[in-house]
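Protein: UDP-glucuronate decarboxylase
Species: Solanum commersonii
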Amino acid sequence: MAGRVDLDGNPIKPMTICMIGAGGFIGSHLCEKLMSETPHTVLAVDVYSDKIKHLLEPTSLPWNGRIQFHRINIKNDSRLEGLIKMADLTVNLAAICTPADYNTRPLDTIYSNFVDALPVVKYCSENGKRLIHFSTCEVYGKTIGAFLPEDSPLRQDPAYFVLSEDASPCIFGPIEKQRWSYACAKQLIERLIYAEGAENGLEFTIVRPFNWIGPRMDFIPGIDGPSEGVPRVLACFSNNLLRHEPLKLVDGGHSQRTFIYIKDAIEAVFLMIENPARANGHIFNVGNPNNEVTVKQLAEMMTQVYSKVSGETPLETPTVDVSSKEFYGEGYDDSDKRIPDMTIINRQLGWNPKTSLWDLLESTLTYQHRTYAEAVKQAMSKTTAN
Ligand SMILES: NC(=O)c1ccc[n+]([C@@H]2O[C@H](COP(=O)([O-])OP(=O)(O)OC[C@H]3O[C@@H](n4cnc5c(N)ncnc54)[C@H](O)[C@@H]3O)[C@@H](O)[C@H]2O)c1
Ligand SMILES: O=C(O)[C@H]1O[C@H](OP(=O)(O)OP(=O)(O)OC[C@H]2O[C@@H](n3ccc(=O)[nH]c3=O)[C@H](O)[C@@H]2O)[C@H](O)[C@@H](O)[C@@H]1O
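Structure follows.
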């Protein structure tokens, strides 16, 4: 750890980071890397700590004293401002960010992604503290190309689908499509942070993750989350594979996504944390444009990879189509395609993703199998016995 320097060759001083939402998927990976590779201190704020328990106990861990857990709900806790004041930097990850909630719990979604983030922005601005705020690629909504005729040659032109921070519009569906409650709340908090920067000098960085996936993402329904819960696609498909049931393709699985390995993405956040002069005032796409698939192709690849890591033969019919209304309920809508423009992050931080989709699925599904296969088997045999 000694002699660590930033991208401009300046020594990196140890800092204190207030990380809100540290107990979630991204937070757990960020805390892990900060503890093992840097001398920084983390004030970890969340309502849950299960995913970072291995970093908090036992007290003999080499980073003992450099990570403190604060069980705080940021909706209503006066201790938050004190923690932000104690820190050099605040990283805000707290959010409701599972699509199944956007149309079924739109109020909670808007409060979580906009209203609850307001005090965090305010405290950072008033106390002259730096903020890294987690937004989403969903702020782009749909591509311009989605509105062209199916056979238009312009659909192949990157100008109509590549999503760039400083040029692409944000295209959401009508209000009754409540899917967009999340994207709209995230967009408004981005605009507020940007305005705090412009009018009051807030030092900020906004991160727009593009489908980061890996171990510890969300939950497996009925095992470490509610049986009726609907997590994001990686956990939905993992759950189907663990239970030997067909993977459900919403509206045929034609939507396209680019998936990036969490460990590649965390490298980018690291560079932002330790290179404030290059990261402040910027909005960054963080994704892997080389890993594009349709959801149907993702299902097929996950089926193949899972068979390899588990040694189990895939089902004869590995997928089944389901309507979005049946799967998510009224008010669902979808982003058609998500290719991140990498120009700004390349220029500012020299960062590029490394891991192919096959490789990231192999390590992630190995983890899923090792962590959950036995528990799922036991839960299923109990259900059969009853
Ligand atoms: N994973 C991705 O690919 C992805 C993509 C786009 C955007 N994001 C954004 O990144 C952030 C983190 O995402 P994640 O995948 O780690 O999600 P996550 O749900 O695993 O983590 C969010 C954490 O915030 C905590 N939290 C929520 N409300 C809170 C509150 N009121 N008080 C205290 N803690 C609270 C939750 O308990 C959870 O541990 C979110 O803002 C999300 O919108 C993630
Ligand atoms: O990860 C991101 O970058 C962002 O996008 C996600 O949104 P989305 O990609 O639509 O969510 P997933 O649940 O991962 O679904 C991906 C696609 O798979 C489909 N899907 C999902 C689950 C399933 O079982 N079957 C299925 O076909 C969905 O309809 C969607 O088209 C979430 O909104 C956020 O976590 C985040 O902001």
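Remarks: The mean pLDDT is 97.
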